[in-house]
Amino acid sequence: MWVALMSELGFARYGAQGGDIGARVSALTAYEDPAHCIGAQINMPNSPVPAGHPEEDWSGEERAIIARMREWQSKEAAYQWIQGTRPQTLSYGLTDSPAGLAAWIVEKWRSWSDCDGDIERRFTKDEILSNISIYWFTRTMNSATRYYYERRQHDRANALPAPLETPAGFSVFPKEIFGPPRQWVEAEYNVQQWSVHDRGGHFAAMEEPELLVGDIREFFRPLR
Amino acid sequence: MPEPFKIDVADTEIRDLKRRLAQTRWPSEVTDSGWQYGSNLAYMQELCEYWRTGYDWRVQETYLNRIPQFVTQVSADGVEDYTVHYVHQEGVGPDPLPLVFTHGWPGTFYEVVKILGPLTDPASHGGDPADAFTVVAPSIPGYGFSQIPTSGGFGQKRTARLWNALMAQLGYEQYGAQGGDWGAIVTAQVAYQDPDHCIGAQINMPIGRPPEDKPQEEWTDQEREVAAKMAHWQAQETGYQAIQGTKPQTLAYGLTDSPAGLAAWITEKWRSWSDCDGDIEKRFTKDEILTNISIYWFGQTINSSTRYYYEMRQNQAENFLPGRLETPTGFSIFPKEIITAPRSWCEPGYNITQWSEHDKGGHFAALEEPDLLVQDIRDFFRPLR
Known about the structure:
The complex is a heterodimer of chains A (about 220) and B (about 375). Chain A has about 220 residues and is an alpha/beta fold. Chain A contains 11 helices and 4 strands; from the N terminus they run H-E-H-E-H-H-H-H-H-H-E-H-E-H-H.
């Protein structure tokens, strides 16, 4: 759809950028439209273990990363499970109760951002609530969570269908929830940028806009 | 000291519920999706409209208050000190056996209502008065009208210790225990923790694991089938366990603030876990469904009830049995139960003296097939009296 949108807007060449679901959408946009999409800049690298790289061969760093990911999965990923199996059941409380919706979203803006447990170190109440209000007024929490169902039920693999040839750039933020080793990402992407930062989390565009903008400019400059 | 208890929800609460129902903001749904993504929109609207207009809580409350209920302070192990709400109905017979019945989630003490009469007064229900029980059906703290734990760590073992203490407080030297869902886990713990007094555990949900010492190549076809079924169930149906086991508080706001939210969360399970072929009203009336939900609503217990999953997840070592239960244990096996385990998987953990398989009924056995369950309970305890 993004491919069609950019075409409808008359853009013969364009770039794609995103984090979270946007990371995967950006990668797939580049994958689906190599004739027009010149690059994908991603602030949440999330690649699986490459094929043909069994656990016996993992380095200490790889093991530590996987251990952290498994711990995160077991403690923090239940929202994916319920959203991925019974989003409709969840939706009644989140559509009918503003407090219910706010709690569901605020928990993530706090735990996924680089805020040391104090959400207002990163976001103002107005910022938090404007985002929540968009969900509230449009009643889109149900459809938003259904996205997880569609992925879980129909499209489980995190990997691209095949390695992406189009140039890809990665911004790596320390408090991002995923942090695969570069070599795993290189197994499926043509990595032209790997920009590691010392501050910022999952919501990079809001948390560290200058750092991210810097990365986006640098990545696309040679591709223009 | 036990004091008589009557449920008495304030008029303002009932009016508030109806007001919220009238103002429900409904989600959309995928067209013609049935129950695929979760609780069906049309059914939830129908149920909630009935809750708002046709359902009469006062009638249900009056009916429930005809069942003798009490509250008492119970202390266990010098740690717990809770006000426990419980049903307490004396048996009618020459020697009624005390029986502690534990409900599950998303149920309440309400799950006892159909078996209460036949268990306590068999003669009036076509049975033998020698099979009479005195039934104690408590609400787990955090459910029903028992005190809500405000500190963490209150799990299934601590519930069982409270039940041991409750039965002692009531003066029962010998007693039996029965339950399904969480009630099954608690029942096993009740027996395990109090072998001098608890003479038997009757459970309507199998509890077993695949054999650790038997490689998968040697599994029987039945074992493979069960494992596949459980893997599928785990992947598709246990999202609620994951979220309740990790972030129950995040979940609590929508379910406490929105009656439709609460109703959807609970109704999905009463439909998918019962033997109803996808049509919940084949098994339960709207009044039954809503009375159970109303107990959660008026007691504001959905949060504490889901926290019970968090406590199990955080402390499995404490809340699962530490060793084999040697006390005689009976299992009632219903075809649409959500957990499946062949007898061979349950034998290592339990001294099984009854394995009663049925051809109808599901997870909520006491409500769905009360006659079958009552028969199993009578048969199981008869030789132990």
